[in-house]
Amino acid sequence: MKTDERRQVTASPSPAAPVRLIAFEQRALRRAVLTVLLIVTLWMIALWIFQSISHFLFLLLLSWLFAMAMEPAINWLTGRGWKRGLATASVGSLVVLAVVGLGAMFGNLFFNQLASLVQSLPDVVTNAISWANRTFKLTLDPTTVTSSLNVTPSQVGSVASNLAGGVLGVVTSLLAAVLNTVTFLVFALYLAADGPRVRTTIGSWLRPARQDVFVTVWDIAQAKTGGYVVSKVVLAGLSSMFYAAFFYLVGVPSWLPLAVLVGLMAQFVPVVGTYFGILIPILFVVFSSPITAVWIVVFATIYQQIETYVFTPRVSRRTMDVNAGIALASVFIGAALWGAVGALIGIPMAAAIVAVLDTYGHRHELVPALAAMDEPDEAASDEGESEDAKLDDAEPEDAASDDARGDHRGESFRPE
Fold first, then answer.
1. Which residue from 77, 95, 94 is spatially nearest to 86, judged by alpha carbons?
2. Whole-prediction pTM value?
3. pLDDT tens-digit series, residues 82-109
């Protein structure tokens, strides 16, 4: 029995599977390795070039948005016989003169008030923490919170000293801003003045079928986004002007930068912009003068109604609107990519994308369950259309009579 067991143990194993060797042709292997290395090298070079010129591309994007914002005024002048170059120069000069004039009138005051506003940040944070400790029985340390927020008196003092120099001090300390401004204006005026030639040059590289799509997309982006930018800038200017006058009358400290902040946030930060914009000046006055904070809330409520039912329908009634969720997401994405300026241009970029998608996107008929959910929105849109109809009825009768005379003569243009 032992002999049999030994025979079973010492039995020879089954032969192993044959090993297959793969041979590469040296020339093909060398070519493949060189191709991969070349692709990786070109990719790294492209990334380096993109990172090097990313700031210039950002300025070019701002120039394009500004050129589209000037387009309605330029078209209005060219429709009355002006040459496009002269119309562009006139509109651009008026914008530059308006900005320079406002800077000369309020620039020094704005930066001085902004410096004092920054200097008061530690006191505001300390007062807010003390109020929270008393109200909610907390044990927060104001010194720890201010240091974690980087608003300690030493840090704030260094920032305030840079701002207190006024417009001249800021420009001299940031010479790069002058170059950026010149680059922005040059390309903006070029894109506005030579816009048709730019379109024909780009279109010449496309096939005829693609050229029609390109022209349509460009026109949509120009009409919708340009009008959107203009309407938001006008509404932000009106809001800043009214809030500045009110803040000055009730004695809000640093009333000018706070009013500009409220106007910009109310228009370029959707959904929550108005509330956060009002909350900031309230925090600066509520601990020293609670009645002033109450007056700010009352004025904001009244002005919000006036802006919604009077200013907005007349300024932006012919421009597109952007879904609140898309607009808010575009603000956050723009801020993450390009900072504060990106937050301002995020919505115009989203407006252009949404306009193109609405034109070329294919929508399907809703099933009954989804159609029932969409009925409240349709009712709201019907109310909005009725408001537009009322506004149309309120237009001067002379214009209506002129249209009637034009229809009678057969001279009016009706799009198909």
1. 77
2. 0.64
3. 999 899 999 989 988 988 888 888 877 7
